[in-house]
Input
Amino acid sequence: MRYDTPGLERWNSRAYDSSFGYVSTQGAPLVDLLDPQPGERVLDLGCGTGVLTAQIAFRGAEVLGIDGSSAMIEKALAQYPGMNFIVGDAHDFTVARPYDAVFSNAALHWMSRDPDAVIASVREALLPGGRFVAEMGGAGNCAELTTAMLTAWREHGLREPELPWYFPSPAEYARRLESEGFVVRLLEYFDRPTPLEECPGGAADWVRMFASSALDGLAPGLVDPLLRRVNELAAPALRRESGWMADYVRLRFAAVRR
Output
């Protein structure tokens, strides 16, 4: 089972941990919101290399990590021997015994094929009263970055690439949760400008990491000038004296299965 996300399987797990470690670092408050208790069973959906999965386990919970990338799961198993990780598709995964909570950080927006199917699968994985605690990109996330991308593609006479993400508004995602049998207890929507501290190539590095599928099929000689143009277009909004910023907008929620 795999997420149906172009380019996801090609993610470099080492680069993800080193260059984009803020994904895990920024997730620490979400673990506090989950507040896992000793003996609870928690499923970490879209666990990546398992950093937050391990934090949840450290608090005494029994945790299963699921991710669509076999490279991520391989890295997680190597880093945290004795913990449970599997490759799985969030749209249709099943569990043998329901969990007390499902947790997800910076992953739901990649599960764009059918968001309702993801929520339904989460519901079926939970006990009645079980918690669904997650953070994802919200409407407006990476707007400057994606606008620079699309403009650069148009300027080079290319068809605009299909972007692999789903960034819902708070109202839209609350409706989806409620229609799939959840009661929303908390929903926060906020800007979180994030330094791209390990991106010497600026927005171009971000594109190579998070939107690599947009580069598929392009002539090799076109990629570098195309990404240079992305940098030129994004720089006025996102480049600071201290370095590049990502214009992140986050949607964080806690919901309970009816």
Summary: The chain has a mean pLDDT of 91.
